[in-house]
From TrEMBL:
CDD domains given in the database record: GT4_PimA-like
Residue span, Glycosyl transferase family domain: 2-125
One biological process term in Gene Ontology: lipopolysaccharide biosynthetic process
Keyword Endoplasmic reticulum found: no
Origin species: marine sediment metagenome
Coiled coil segments of this chain: none
Bilayer-spanning residue ranges: none
InterPro entries: Glyco_trans_1
This protein's UniProt keywords: Transferase
Gene3D superfamilies membership: Glycogen Phosphorylase B (3.40.50.2000)
Short name of any one Pfam family annotated for the protein: Glycos_transf_1
Full protein name: Glycosyl transferase family 1 domain-containing protein
GO molecular function: glycosyltransferase activity
Amino acid sequence: MIILGKGPLQNFIKNLSIKYKDLIEFHNYIHYDIMPLYYSACDVVISPLLSISFVKDNIPTKLLEGMAMEKIILGSDVPGIKGIITHNKNGIIFKSESKVDLIKKIYYIVENFENLNDLRKQARKLMIEKYSWIKMRFLLQKVYDYVTSCVN
């Protein structure tokens, strides 16, 4: 298992996985250029945002990238993630402040991995239909046009 990123759960996860230290690698930072290699090798993308004001409404890029790569998405129940992920339809949601719920959802994914293909496909479909760069370009153009029309 490879765990990428650094955050408030890092020490908890490292302590939890001590007995499996030979099976788990931790990397704090991975250059963006090689991220596609990690996405293609992984099965699950976890976005454990906490419910704090300055991040709770964010839409994590890794979430969208994982959806584009048709990975299982496991995200916390903060507004930015819940605005995209519908539990058991295109991803799995866990309680953001609950380490126990996160662990339960990871076990659920491991136990039901073969039955989650539709979930992955729905995540990719949503990404393409709503969040692709082409869709975002049109949205940004509308925002730009609106803002510039207000200035003139």
